[in-house]
Please model this.
Amino acid sequence: MKKKNLLLLLLLIFITVGLTATGTKESTKAAAEGPVTLTFWYNPAIVEAGSPPADWFVYERLRNELGINLELSPLPSNVNDRDTKATVAGAANNLPDMIWVRRPVMINLVKQGLLAPVDDLYPMMPGRTAKMYPASSIAYTSVNGKSYGFAPSTGDIKKNEGILIRKDWLDNLGLSVPVTVDEYFEVMKAFTFNDPDGNGKNDTYGFSAFIEITASEEGLGRRLDPIFGAWGVAGTWDLSKESAGLNVRKPEYFEAMQYVKRMVDEKVIDPNWLSYKKDDWKAAWKQGRYGIMREQHASYASESNYAPFDKNFPNGEWIVIAPPVGPSGKSSVGVYTDVNDGIISVSARAIKDGKGPAIARLLEWMSDEGYWAIGWGEEGVNFVFDEKGIPSVNGLADPAKGFTKPEMQPLQQLKGLAFYWGEAELESRYPAYVTAISKKPMSALETLYEMQAQPWIKQSGVDLLPLPGGDLKRFYEQGLVEFIRGNRPLTKTEWEKFIRDFDALGGKAWEDAGVAAAKDLGLLT
Model:
């Protein structure tokens, strides 16, 4: 019996020594190889802020906890510039491991064989997949039945933009809040020519925008959607059962174009709007250049974003108002979809190099252990938990390092990859505050609720509709700008010729394919 026990003991010692030796070899090999490097071209959550600093505590956590060396590079703030950067990198076969792209760019890169299917990665991040990637999200990222990226259905807040107007300018000129398109125009004229800020200079304009185009907001882009919404033609598509089709081919679109052209001709819109990039445009309203705009709730009302305007105009005041009502009573801020426009795609090279599991670990971590770090910063330094378990800046040893401060914004550039916008999250993300100079109470959350209460057009699944070919897209976008600039007269005759040429390039075929797809997908309402 003792002999058997001795043999058993020796066997256990042999197995233990063997396992220890194997584990030591694997640990030594991992230490020798070092962490997996993941390069990521990301879309900054706050375009005005810089990238996370080189000593960002998250980098160290990723290396120590996940064995990942994350290298971040921000994409340009302008969406078209982002597309160009991704396209050029693809042409040079120089994509990073992970890249933020829009669906049209993703499809082109898939055709070139530069992106990898990520279907095998979803099971590796079960928590994140359950929270952020429903069937509609996976369908949005799929081509021929394979998913080529991750599009969080919760990464962006829906209906988070609205029409803002300078109330102090209205008060200074004795004007009421405009309701109809005619009233809007009269207010724009007064804001342009009647010195609304009282500085004695001819330096203000009624309205401003910049070209920001998405698949669901073609033409002149989302910043002018409230104008087109007044004629019922906001966004790329009309998905109503009785009149489904491309908005640009509808008579009302021409009427909305005439209104925009009148804004240009009568000089009530900031003349720089066609050349503005997003950063320039945002800086201009903070410098008091114009009095009506469509802006995002936090880009306007969060403490860090509002601070420059508060400093420049302590007596200034913006308010949310309803979008203009058109001739037939229609009105909308614009269109919105269920799925985010941005997709995190993975390069074929990254998967070939065996980086898939590391990418899944990173994304799962952002939705679990790293959630607070990605969203708010370092606990005890940038935030503390209040009695309800909500991140707060109250009680910090150094209030200047609170996550709401402008200087701390670089620490939160990846928050869109972690957030799912629960109520507690919204409360902490957008706390009420008192402005530094004017001592005025402000709340980006209350602003959000005001904007969401305005009329919007829901277009579930619109992102799955076919896209125009490159030549047609260029003709479409450049043609509209030519009309607005006056390079081509905006007459009924010229407009009808434009539509004929549009159809000859494939416009009608695009419309027919889109309507057919919308019917097949059950998107018509």
